[in-house]
Amino acid sequence: MHPVLFRLGSLTVHTYGTLLACGILLGLWLAQKRARAAGLSPDDVWNLGVFMVLAALAGAKLWFLLAFWSYYRANPMEIFSMSTLQAGGVWYGGMLTALAVAVIYTRRKKMKLLPLTDVYAAPLALGHGIGRLGCFSAGCCYGRPTTYAWGVIFHDEYAHQLVGTPLGIALHPTQLYEAGAEFLIFLILLRLSARSHRSGQIFGAYLVLYGITRFTIEFFRGDPGRTLLLGDAGSIMQLVSIGLVGFGIWLWTRHGSSGTSTDIAAGTTGATVSPVPAAPAK
């Protein structure tokens, strides 16, 4: 739709990268703001967030390379080409890598992991939603052809050259489907965070909601970089989605090891849940 934000001489500023950066920074800022109410150090939340972002970018790129390994094995120098470097990567690869880094970081710092994941959940959904708007601008992660009235038609030749976006064909706006779902998930998580809950439940809710969202949207995706299964009847992303939904349900229904509950809205931790409704998150 609009892959280039502006050009300044030989410098090209892409819309996708700009929106992705905005989503990351806004997510980190929001997580840091919510840290103190959850009884966590804002500095720890910010530092871990930065490490997870860097790990996510690397993991997303690595999964992307593995998805097209047959091509890159035959053309190894293409790994360092501009088209590869500018490709966004695979979201689940980044997410799983970031989670691994969070586990390692919290163990080394002797911090509790689940309260941290709860703080990051809503900002993650918000940042991801903004990033998907960047995908729409770039023309990547596009949908299958459709005859529905809300189908979108891309015309930008640069987008076609950069990420292979089909031109002149009405496509499902899967980027907008996912962005809208992420913004809705963000609002739901804010509402849940304002109520008394056990540690891990908010992140569990995110995994369930996003897992269902991604599993469904995969049926409408048309881009080839998704590790297709069974002759395009499904994708590995759907298998990962099922796993995350199951894990999210377990996080939501599990009992804390010591029977404690965390009220993020009130910023307290205790053995019981306050019956007084918490104030809406700001």
In short:
The protein is mainly alpha-helical.
Quick tags:
single chain, 282 residues, two-stranded antiparallel sheet, two-stranded antiparallel ribbon, 10 helices, globular, disordered C terminus
Description:
By secondary structure, this protein is mainly alpha-helical. The chain has one domain. 59% of the residues lie in helices and 8% in strands. The strands form four sheets. It has a two-stranded antiparallel ribbon. A hairpin with a 2-residue loop joins strand 1 (4-8) and strand 2 (11-14). Helix 6 (113-138) runs parallel beside helix 9 (201-217) and helix 8 (174-193) packs antiparallel against helix 9. The longest helix has 26 residues, at 42-67. The radius of gyration is 20 Å and the shape is globular.
Assess the beta-strand content as a share of residues: 5-15%
Query: Could you list the spans in which at least 5 consecutive residues all have pLDDT below 50?
Result: 257-282
Succession of helices and strands: EEHHHHHHEHEHHEEHEE
Enumerate the strands of the largest sheet in spatial order, edge to edge or round the barrel: 1-2
Helix content: 55-70%
Q: Can you tell me the overall shape?
A: globular
Q: How far from one another are the termini?
A: 34 Å
Structural class: mainly alpha
Using only C-alpha atoms, the radius of gyration works out to 20 Å
Main sheet overview: 2 strands, antiparallel
Total count of strands: 8
How many helices? The count is: 10
Look at the structure and give the mean pLDDT: 84
